[in-house]
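Notes from the 1:1 (GR / supervisor)

We went over the backlog. Supervisor wanted to see one worked example end to end before approving the batch request, so GR pasted a single chain during the call. The sequence is below; no edits were made to it. Supervisor asked that the structure be written out right there so they could see what the output format looks like.
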Amino acid sequence: MPEALWTATFFPEPEAASYVARLVADGVRVFKVHSQVGAFHVDDPLLGEVWATIADAGLPVVAHVGSGPVGTAYTGPEATARLLRRHPGLQLVIAHLGAPESAEFIELAETYDHVHLDTSMALAPFFTGGDPLSADMVARLGRLQERVVYGSDFPTLPFRYADQLGWLADLGLGEDWLRDVCWNNARRLLGI
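Structure output shown during the call:
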């Protein structure tokens, strides 16, 4: 599929640094990690060289690091904050706004210029319990317009695409914000 970007993942294991370097050299475009599923902290010492390689290459990493839907010892903003202190230029895309710790992950995006926030499913009743984001959080997302994206798990989501777009529109941040979130920001991030 020429429209699909080559993606890869990694795990904290001794050989990770060599296979990630090989993948980067061979042209991988995006990485994805899921600390909850993989049962590891993103700042695991075995990943130090991996993160340096990815940061130097300027490649985005979709990171499922929020504690939703079920938190574990490996989820939450703490390990991600430690990682970003070591690699402040890392292009992380925090899946699902890092729900339920969205406020803390928004703060990381406000602090680190290359952190992006993905909104897929984050506004769905699955994560919100039907409660809208606070006005403060919506305003903060508005100010981060160029670093908010949609689609980390699309199309494998349990909600209709139209519903998810509607929840984004319901934030009231305007058409320019929606156009950036749903199209322009991902194109820029992925170099398309």
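Supervisor's comment: The CA atoms of residues 9 and 168 lie 28 Å apart.
Batch request approved.
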